[in-house]
Design a protein that fits this description.
Four Helix Bundle (Hemerythrin (Met), subunit A); alpha/beta; binds guanosine-5'-triphosphate; flat; about 55% helix; 15 helices; about 350 residues; Rossmann fold; binds magnesium ion; eight-stranded mixed β-sheet
Length: about 350
Amino acid sequence: MEFLQANLVPILITVLVIVVAAVLLGRKQGKKEEVITDPFERLRHALGKTRGGLLDGIRRALGGGELSEGVIDSLEEILLQADIGVSVTDKLLAGLKEAYKKGELKSQDQVLEFLKGRLVEQLGGEHPKLNENPDGPTVILVCGVNGAGKTTSIAKLTKHLAEQGKRVLLCASDTFRAAAVEQLRTWAERLDVEIVLGQQNQDPAAVAHDAHEKAVAKGFDVLIVDTAGRLHTEKNLMRELEKIARVGKKHIESSPHEVLLVIDATTGQNGVRQAAAFSQSIPLTGLFLAKLDGTAKGGIVVVIREELGIPVKFVGLGEKPEDIAPFDAEKFVSALFA
Ligand SMILES: Nc1nc2c(ncn2[C@@H]2O[C@H](COP(=O)(O)OP(=O)(O)OP(=O)(O)O)[C@@H](O)[C@H]2O)c(=O)[nH]1
Ligand SMILES: [Mg+2]
């Protein structure tokens, strides 16, 4: 009793703090995460960081004042910061100056429209589709460096293709880590698709072989093969990847129809170098640019088009399976400037 009387104030304060914390936590948990259903809005939202630097920077540089060659020059740093690359930035600035001298650019809006048009041109107006096998299962081999986002991107692709009515089979050829197999198995369960699992340390090519056999036997539309992360400098691992790519030909002669390299957009120009190096070992048919939502360097898409000539087929916009967009140059640029 004496103890209670002596410590009444601290006890009351502690109880009050606990109650307030519990109420706040309850509110937070009850609060629904914002779900963006419109695909363009989702893209726009994911490009927020890049747009923040690029569009806001351009607007600030242009200000409300007169356009001049000096003002145009001041755009250089902003374009470079968005990772649009030196060569394309030079072209854009030269184009802007030419149009300015001809008297075609007077307002801020005209400058923005000019840049949008040139960027779409630079991206070749691309809207590349996945290659399809008309004679059986389409095989998509997914590769990339450690942690690029391969397995998550496979979950997104699976959902995207399943929504188009395709029956998808997954193959867990990343047999180095039990956790990697488990990660893909969990996605397969969540997305309600079948999976061919490898045992830990089993030859990844053998697992891919079994998956091809099953895809043909059971008439799947698409087989997606997950592989372990690797660096292009690891010769043995690159040879292993070539073997995984080769092994399915016994069951599906034209396999793989897609070799998608997943690049982490947050690594900027480094990702471009990875892609160039990977493509020397294995012919890449497309890129999946993951984590666009996590970077202000979304302009990397333009550099990839300029330097590699390998089409970006999909972009990753977050960690959920619906956070995917097939790449479309016009929509991409619109979302960047909207
Ligand atoms: N914000 C964001 N995070 C992503 C995206 N794609 C993947 N991630 C996250 O990146 C991390 C690595 O993703 P994984 O799919 O495991 O990458 P991985 O290439 O399969 O990794 P390894 O198999 O270990 O080489 C995870 O935390 C993912 O949630 C994306 O588009 N946006
Ligand atoms: Mg993985």
